[in-house]
Amino acid sequence: MARREDGGLSYVSFRVDPALASLPWPDDVLKQFLFDHGDNAAFVYDYGGIDLSEIMWRLETIPAAAFSGMPTGASDAGCVESFAENPVHWVKVRPAEVGRHWEEHGTWMRPLILIDRRLLDPSDSGLQVVEGRTRVGVLRGRLGEGLHVASNHQAWVGHLRQCQPCPSAQQSDGGPARRLRGWSARADL
User: Fold this and answer.
1) pLDDT above 80: residue 181
2) How far is CA 80 from the centre of its chain?
3) How, if at all, do strands 152-160 and 112-116 pair?
């Protein structure tokens, strides 16, 4: 896929594509996961084997302590720690409202994306950062520097559909399984 905004495809056009109809994901997850990163080779390497139709998303409240050792994809190993080394810088390079939100609320403005690691390896456990590596790095860095950090943070968490059903989400129509590698190969998305 060409970079969407730069390539002329808006999120609105992306979202109404019939290929997405059987994927009952919240808009915020769809935008951060597929629209923003669906053509990123490293991202596809890390998450390309996941059956997208098997993920059920739920907005959850996660304790700050849970982020202290939470991993991200292998292709981005070490990046969260790198962001944590200078959290003030990573907030300053964002719009001013991001900094104000951290100071006032001690958390990010937009829920990040996490997945249950069993989606990657059925024998694994815990959560993994999919999107929001900078935000998690800022959180870790602010904790390390004694800056204001809320005790809980919002995140979209993807669970394996049969393990953690989410009654508030739409059910899949049983359409064909979708994998991230299949999405990245589609030039029209």
Assistant:
1) no
2) 13
3) parallel
